[in-house]
Amino acid sequence: MANLKIKELTKENEEKYLDKVAQLEKIVLAAMEKDGKIGQLFITGKEDISEYVHSKQNTVMIAVDSNENVQSATYITQGQKAFTYNDITKYFKYGEGYKKYVKSLYANENEYKNDMLEVYKVKLKAYKYAKGKILNEHPEFSNDILSFLEHELKEENNHFHEKSILREDFNKYMSEYIENMQESSIKEKYEKFYWTNAEDISKEFGKTIDINKIKNSDIKEYEKSMKLQEEYEYNKILQNSKIVIHEKPEFEIEKYYNANTQNAVEIDTYITNPNARHAGLARILVYEGIKKQMKKHFNNDASKEIYLCSTLHRENLSSKYVSEFFGLKDSLYVKRRDGRDREVHICKIERQNVDEYLNKIQDKLIVLYNYNPENKKISQERKEDIIKEQIEYEKNELKRIQGYSKNTNNKYFGNIKDTESKIRKINRLNNMLNKNKEELER
Fold first, then answer.
1. Is residue 366 part of a domain?
2. What pTM was computed for the model?
3. Interacting residues of 440 by C-beta distance below 8 A, sequence separation 6+
């Protein structure tokens, strides 16, 4: 770390560093693929990195060496369009539990049903709007959206995968339609009923519907819409992009129901030159990035909480350890379209706990990675607590890795090399602990 400088990539210095960050992405991708880690990194690219830099809602941090070469970078993002690829919060607002939660917000069942139906009709209009824009941009599909769908389903390695053009454009333009609506309440309702489809409405309205309690015009319009081409097309596309949550959450998922793109920060990407490793460098950059995002977020007196999010592949242990270092220990294991299954990680930090949270991370970086630009003083007792806590974490990870085999369905992380690395790390931490005890005894 002695020869590295931590900087924010800004509009003022991007001409100097932007190309180097984009090149670093290619170096990291090539090294991962050579190591057999296929599909674990999607390159962001120069244009999108620049877009992050110019956005007031995102932060790009870099580490440069004495020759001004970029050795590491991280992208911290906030304020993405709702329910698009980068909106992790949507996965925590899915399923029967969330439906019951939304229902509990209503004074009676009929108000709930009316809003559900209203949003679904708006979604069909948003779909029609999005379809028009997509087909205008892709004339090769002769004004037939289902041809576009079939093209993506048949195309090798591009069948509604994680970055499907069709699926992503629908989300983007449907969200754009909702954002442009004058009635602000629709935006909130759209979020509540985003996952609602025709099957859900049939369950709610089918045999239990009381026509005398629901507006007749709504029922007639819904029944009519079921016969429209838009309805058929929209549900055919939804059918090919269903989310699947593989495992029952082992945490209280309800505390994440209020997360959205405005109050959630994503640890989007962190990359380090594989030929110039520095222990803890990714964590240092992420810390500086989320610290800036948090301070900016809580400058608004209305902000009561912030959510930190990330995604990772289960084979990628280093990503898991970075996420958990920052407290993102609650996770869902999901199938996102037809792409590779991923874990989506999240944690919640209340306004009153932000300083305590940042101080704790800062102390860990000082003790474990000797990163202390502010020359903060830490007692030997505090150092001992941090080292012991880390040893306990590493021992639990070692036990977890050793407890799984490659044949364990959907649960395996790592391999024998990861086990050996973990043992070495525990030994290093024990040495740190012994040295700290010697300091205490002097």
1. no
2. 0.82
3. 380, 381, 384
